[in-house]
Amino acid sequence: xxxxxxxxxxxxxxxxxxxxxxxxxxxxxxxxxxxxxxxxxxxxxxxxxxxxxxxxxxxxxxxxxxxxxxxxxxxxxxxxxxxxxxxxxxxxxxxxxxxxxxxxxxxxxxxxxxxxxxxxxxxxxxxxxxxxxxxxxxxxxxxxxxxxxxxxxxxxxxxxxxxxxxxxxxxxxxxxxxxxxxxxxxxxxxxxxxxxxxxxxxxxxxxxxxxxxxxxxxxxxxxx
Length: 224
Description:
The protein is mostly helical. The protein contains 10 helices and 2 strands, in the order H-H-H-E-E-H-H-H-H-H-H-H. A hairpin with a 3-residue loop joins strand 1 (57-60) and strand 2.
């Protein structure tokens, strides 16, 4: 996938997921998109095919491309999930959060049983990255997703890893004034895994997810 293709795909995905292009909206014509993005018609067609594959648009001959209903979107596609995380994503972060206790709470217990020294080193590096991020919410978020990716891999279930990472990508950045508490919550999860204490790891994960749910609720309330 070329850089220009990725930029076109990312921008249109962000506009669709963020609501600037609402369901039922017709996208500009191919020729207009080539002018707007300063790319070839081939790049535009590749981008439209990619959007169609992700369920974001429907393309009909002679009628162009139309934004589909959110129920048709492949929300676990990496590009779509990332767009949700950047936009705040409407109801999807809350939906993702409702799924995570069924995935990550038991996975934390499994990780506490299975963690090797290499797994612990990798998790520690992500904790350091969260600490080093300071007030940079994007860097903090990247490190947070990395921590959960490693935790899920440590549970030795590739399907769980793929689904869990996508769910985390839909969740917006944590406000900079909550970085310290977010880091502390992850430190408690890590400490329990390092002690190989499955019960404490599950409890620490439950506490983290509950706090994350409360913060998401605060964010939604402020946006109303």
